Amino acid sequence: MSGHATYEFRNPVVRWIDSRLPIFSLMKAQAMDFPTPRNLNYWWTFGGIAATMLVVQILTGIVLVMHYTPHVKLAFDSIEGIMRDVNYGWLIRWLHANGASFFFVAVYIHIFRGLYYGSYKAPREVLWMIGVLIFIAMMATAFMGYVLPWGQMSYWGAVVITNLFSAIPVVGDYIVQWLWGGFSVDNPTLQRFFSLHYLLPFVLAALVFLHIWALHVPGNNNPDGIDVKSEQDTLPFHPYYTMKDLYAILVFFLVYLAFVFYSPWYLGHSINFVKANPLVTPPHIVPEWYFLPFYAMLRAIPDKLGGVVVMFSSLIILFFLPWLDRSPVRSARYRPVYRFFFWLLVLTCIVLGIAGSQPPEGLWIPTARIATAWYFIHFLVILPLLGKLEKPKPMPATITEAVLARGGH
Amino acid sequence: MSTMTSDVSRRDFLYIATGTVGAAGTALALWPFIDQMNPDASVLALASTEFDMAPLQEGQGVTIKWRGKPVFIRHRTKKEIEEAKKVPLAELKDPIARNLNLAADAPATDENRVKDAEGKVNEKYLVQIGICTHLGCVPLGEAGEYHGWFCPCHGSQYDTAGRIRKGPAPRNLDIPPYRYISDTKIVIG
Q1: Three-state SS at A159
Q2: Residue A169 in contact with partner chain B when CB distance is under 8 A
Q3: Domain boundaries, chain A
Q4: Interface predicted TM-score of the whole assembly (ipTM), two decimals
Q5: Neighbours of A409 (CB within 10 A)
Q6: Between B37, B38, B170, which is nearest A304 by CB?
């Protein structure tokens, strides 16, 4: 966001407002004229898709709150009321429930795109770190939202996750009681989760704003991972990328809405249609799919505190990624060895996800342990070593040269 | 020059004093906002529950609610008691009784697992909080390799005295504070 824009708008009202609050110049400079690398591929559309999903979640969420009652005696029934009685209640609820899943789909692809093309490297470290914060805040929001329907999986998910904090030595039990507002997960817990579930999306929106601000200082990374050298390397954001993003959003919505309309509970667990019962734990409790890799790490470690530490470390480590990866080359296009390890990491995360969905027995335990170990080895050993040992492929001098060499225009 | 210096130090004093009062005030104002999340008076009021174990037949167990938590009360069979007594303490993952009625370091003998607040022992009746010490699920009774309790969430196994034997749970099942008010009647809490 550089300096004052000097653009003179033709419309006198716009000009009058803009000279007092330069919001139109800002929008023009940042959302329309913004110079964007000309070689961005479709993997770059997932940031915009994720932002769109946040908007969908906020809009559907505000509507759901008009009909939902956050009380242990009424929550479950009010959800059924939304499903059966409220006009289009079923649609709004399924949009929201599946919207959470597809928000994660978009964000996971967005994160792995960043990993593949080295988007976390200088000068985009702060941009990346804000992204990690967004990811963590989003996980907290999703977790608390899942508790609100007060089904069996809601309840026991809340019990297990809040109990993670009891692993903290000495003060753990007090922290858990403080989180619960009682001696077990109960009405006070439900009400505070509801309050925070309403608050956090707006915190997320603020973080997304900072994320975009941090993006607009250096500008976008790109598939070749080389800096923009001249205007020739760029296109104005509007209409080139607004339309490309919109097209991708529409295709993404096609898949998202296919779930909403044809298989709205495919990603859920039927046990959540049973009202919460604090005296009976369902035989097989699992979190939503987007938490499974982390859940697998938690269970892989045979020690309570150890499991919790490892699980949280898997997120914290991402903050340090810009300094763990020592290679000066950003894009995996020019890093053949890194490219192999990138796909191995993707595979590791998928294996962790599957292990997390299975009961903790038999071969799944060693599988989860090996995958957990590899996740950390990738970041702590492989990346620093590759920076020293890998020989990158020759790189084009400019983005334009790279585009033309591939026969583009 | 001298008036200048005293002026500056007066200003410094006011500056630091204002900042300190502001920071201390903010810190103090924070406490009510933190403490409001702790268990409130109505939650604390539900502190004790009475239960008569006489109707329980040998081998029968019930789960009752105390402070919103499940409490397992089991009339153990002779075989279960023998099994629990046979285990040497050295074999236990958690050698401490975890009985809130006893000293914090009391060893996890079978006797210490069934002792009430006044030292009374009725080894038939095992009273424990039915919450897995790993991440808070409710274990299933008469299950697992040790014929005690098995937690379906992450696979912890407890023996017939509710002691952790295998799996990720760090501690034996907790024994709540309770005392006998007759041969079979107890007050929990």
Answers
A1: helix
A2: no
A3: 38-287, 290-319+336-391
A4: 0.78
A5: 6
A6: B170
State the Cα–Cα distance between residues A260 and A252, nearest whole angstrom: 13
Contact residues, chain A, for B34 at CB < 8 Å: 178
**pLDDT score of A16 more than 90:** yes
Question: Which residues lie closer than 8 Å to B170 by C-beta, 6 or more apart?
Answer: A303, A304, A305, B94, B133, B134, B164
Flag whether residue B73 sits within 8 Å of chain A, measured between CB atoms.
no
- Eight-state DSSP code of residue A396: -
Contact by Cβ (8 Å): A379, A301: no
Classify the C-alpha dihedral B7-B12-B17-B23 as positive or negative: positive
CATH class of A38-287: mainly alpha
Q: Please indicate whether, in this complex, the C-beta atoms of A156 and B155 are within 8 angstroms of each other.
A: no
pLDDT of residue B5 exceeding 70: no
- Identify the closest residue of chain B to A162 by CA–CA distance: B135
Is B154 an active-site residue? yes
List, in sequence order, every residue forming a beta bridge with B115; answer none if it has no partner: B121
pTM of the model: 0.89
Chain B residues whose CB is inside 8 A of the A159 CB are: 135-137
Cβ proximity of B114 and B98 under 8 Å: no
> Given CB atoms, is A162 within the 8 Å cutoff of chain B?
yes
Does B67 contact chain A (CB < 8 Å)?
A: yes
